[in-house]
Design goal:
100 residues, elongated, 48% helix, 4 strands
Length: 100
C-alpha cells in the first residue's frame, strides 16, 4: 500500500513538472553587508528564487525567468552588485539531471 502511494505521488510530481525554459541563474560577486541586506530585502519582497542566500563575504545565486532577466540585471547593476550567468539554461540542467 505504501509503495502505491509513493508511486502515485511520483507520477503526480512528474506530470506537474513546470517548464523552466528561458530561466537562468545569476551569481553575484562577493557581497558586503549593505549589499547582502539589500538582497535579503528583495528576497522577502519578491518572488525571485534565491538558490544561495545573500550573506556578507559570499555570493548569492538568483534564478530568474527571461521575462524578468533584464529588470533584475538592471537592478543589480544600479545597486553596484556585480554578477555573471552561472546557469545559462535551467531547463536543460533539469533534463540532464533526470535519470535515463
Amino acid at each position: 500500500m505504501k509503495v502505491g502511494g509513493v508511486l502515485c505521488c511520483l507520477v503526480v510530481a512528474v506530470s506537474a513538472h513546470k517548464s523552466y525554459d528561458g530561466y537562468k541563474v545569476l551569481r553575484t560577486g562577493t557581497l558586503d553587508q549593505d549589499k547582502a541586506d539589500l538582497l535579503r530585502d528583495v528576497q522577502t519582497d519578491t518572488h525571485l528564487d534565491f538558490w544561495k542566500e545573500p550573506a556578507p563575504g559570499r555570493s548569492a545565486d538568483i534564478m530568474t525567468s527571461s521575462d524578468e532577466m533584464e529588470s533584475v540585471m538592471t537592478w543589480l547593476s544600479s545597486n553596484g552588485i556585480t554578477f555573471h550567468t552561472m546557469v545559462e539554461d535551467v531547463e536543460m540542467l533539469i533534463q540532464e539531471a533526470k535519470p535515463a
